[in-house]
Amino acid sequence: MSKDSTRAGEWSRAELLARILIEDRRRHADQGRLDEAMADHVGLHPTDLQCVALLDLEPGPVSTGDVARLTGLTSGSATRLVDRLVKAGVVTRQADPDDRRRSLVVLAPAARERFTAAWEAPGRAFGAVLERYGDAELAVIADYLHRSAEVGREQARRLRAGEDA
């Protein structure tokens, strides 16, 4: 078990679950502040930076429709987002080799280097936190992050669709 871990043996399951939900809400708010600070640091709007982060995770160029899907924006908003990023030199459009009527969006190499450098110090800081955990704990953390992201995407979809719980 990690050093300075929770007092799992002293807390009930209900207390642990409550603590996790509270800390996750705090983490979400703090992540929003970090995202805003990073966006200011690199001279982008937070939504634009979020798109850059998502494009960086993609294995190759994506369509504007994919940008809409990745970001949760409407197709019109995604088009305007891509236009801003092209104008800022952050992404480029290239012809789709399978459909000449379509263009694909790719992160510009210089922008990728710029954002990688900007995330270097925060990445080291988050990495230092993870170093405190053993492999089994890291597997649980990775699983939680993956599953909670899926839940977040589904809840965002549900809210946008106006569905009740």
Detailed description of the structure:
- The structure is a single chain.
- This protein is mainly alpha-helical.
- 67% of the residues lie in helices and 10% in strands.
- The protein contains seven helices and three strands; from the N terminus they run H-H-E-H-H-E-E-H-H-H.
- A three-stranded antiparallel beta sheet has the order 1-3-2.
- Strand 2 and strand 3 form a beta hairpin.
- The longest helix is centred in the N-terminal third of the chain and has 30 residues.
- It starts with 12 loop residues before the first helix and ends in a 5-residue tail after the last helix.
Entry keywords:
7 helices, single chain, 10% strand, 165 residues, three-stranded antiparallel beta sheet, mainly alpha
Brief digest:
With 165 residues, the chain is mostly helical. It contains 7 helices and 3 strands.
Largest sheet: 3 strands, antiparallel
Distance between the termini: 36 Å
Query: Helix and strand string, N-terminal first?
Result: HHEHHEEHHH
The fraction of residues assigned to DSSP E strands is: 5-15%
Spatial extent as radius of gyration: 19 Å
Please, what is the average pLDDT?
Answer: 92
The helix tally amounts to 7
Which range best describes the helical content: under 10%, 10-25%, 25-40%, 40-55%, 55-70% or over 70%? Answer: 55-70%
Unreliable spans: none
The protein's oligomeric status is: single chain
> Helix/strand/pairing class, anyone?
mainly alpha
Using the alpha-carbon principal axes, give the shape.
globular
The total beta strand count reads 3
The spatial strand order of the largest sheet comes to 1-3-2
